[in-house]
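Sample intake sheet
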Amino acid sequence: MPIPEKGENLQVVLQEVLQVVAETMEGNWFNAAVHNYAFAEVVFAEILPELRRRSEVLYLDFKDIPSHYPAYKNIQLFFERCQQEGLNPRLPEHRQRFNNEFLERTGGRYLIGRYLEDRIEMLRGSSIAEEGRTLHLGIDLFSRDLEPVFTPYNGIIARTGREPGPYGYGNYLIVDHQTKRNQWYSFFGHLSHQLPSPGRAVQRGEQIAVLGDFSNNENGGWSRHLHYQLLTELPPEGETPQGYCRKEDVEKCQERFPDPRMVLGTIY
């Protein structure tokens, strides 16, 4: 490893070294060598401001909720309370109220919905749940505000679009990242309608979008959040990537849609 010159920032040197490592790595970029998520925190920019410093897990699989959790962190209790009041807890305005209280009480900025988490309780009654596709293939980052969104790495805006209808992505975009030996993609869902033009080159850490709101179904009808997903190939033209999978398909899906922490770092 090179020794920094006097006055040279060690973080910059490390970043340059690890970028070279990422670009010259043999075989598939998404291999065991990058499962050390600390690697990601040096190479890749944060896709939301302060993501790695001000985030906390939101357990959306009821069976995983720690028994010691206070009521304001326990979404199962929130669902039960809403149902007692005759409210639908899955409506975005009610979910947003829960998220806002959680963030206000903890001083956080984001709540994290985990990769491969079983979302049956969030999807109950939907066609996705009826098909048994309830394991989440991305990471969700819930916020109070309509936060700016940044690209983690150099690339080109490959596609932008809108997926209408219930349980859709709303406005989305895909960034095509290419290193010397590998090509991979970042998918960003639930954005505002102001999207960059396809074909535009973007640099690591450059703002590319803003989160969308649930008013007028801009973000697909969800509480405010970013769905971030890694892709090893583009979906067919006019389609969006599969966001959930069945338990029996999980190994195949992990190959196509790797753990986003390879880019996001050790956020949980």
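Comment: Confidence is low (pLDDT under 50) at residues 1-7. The radius of gyration is 19 Å.
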